[in-house]
Amino acid sequence: MVTKIEAIYYPDRSTECERLLFMVPVTAGFPSPAEDYIEGKLDLNKQLIKHPSATFFVKVMGDSMIHAGIHPGDILIVDRAIEPTDKKVVIAVIDGDLTLKRIRMIKGKVFLMPENENYEPLEIKEEMNFEIWGVVTNVIHTL
User: What tens digit of pLDDT does each residue of 47-83 get?
Assistant: First the structure.
């Protein structure tokens, strides 16, 4: 299945998401008293959203970007204020359909590249209705 966008969401900027930030390496051994290492608070909105008015979230459907670490069901943070330069992962509209791919500029041509060998690159032709909606900045998925 080609990777498509299942849903689009806008961030709720009315809330803050401050959590404790520990400034120590985390080991997989025995626990240590973490209270000694609290650095302060971390607001995920401030860390993950650089341009609030230009940011939206999308939910991924499909597997064409799995080698980029993007899986079905993941939530992507997308920023419209970032320039979609070569090698960026982007949300694009092609002839009315939303898709997720890595943009590549090769020898004066624009391609949308999947990150799964089961899919072919798509060359953007002049007759296509093509627009980039934004650049993916972060991936949120459960382990």
Answer: 888 998 899 889 899 999 999 999 999 999 999 999 9
Q: Could you tell me the maximum CA-CA distance found in the chain, to the nearest angstrom?
A: 62
Superfamily per CATH, domain 4-10+54-140: Umud Fragment, subunit A (2.10.109.10)
Residue from 53, 101, 107, 109 carrying the catalytic annotation: 101
Single pTM value for the model: 0.76
Give the residue ranges of the chain where pLDDT is below 70: 1-5, 7, 9-39
Residues 13, 140, 89, CA angle at the centre, nearest 5°? 95
Q: Which of 64, 87, 88, 125 is catalytic?
A: 64
Range(s) for CATH 2.10.109.10 in the chain? 4-10+54-140
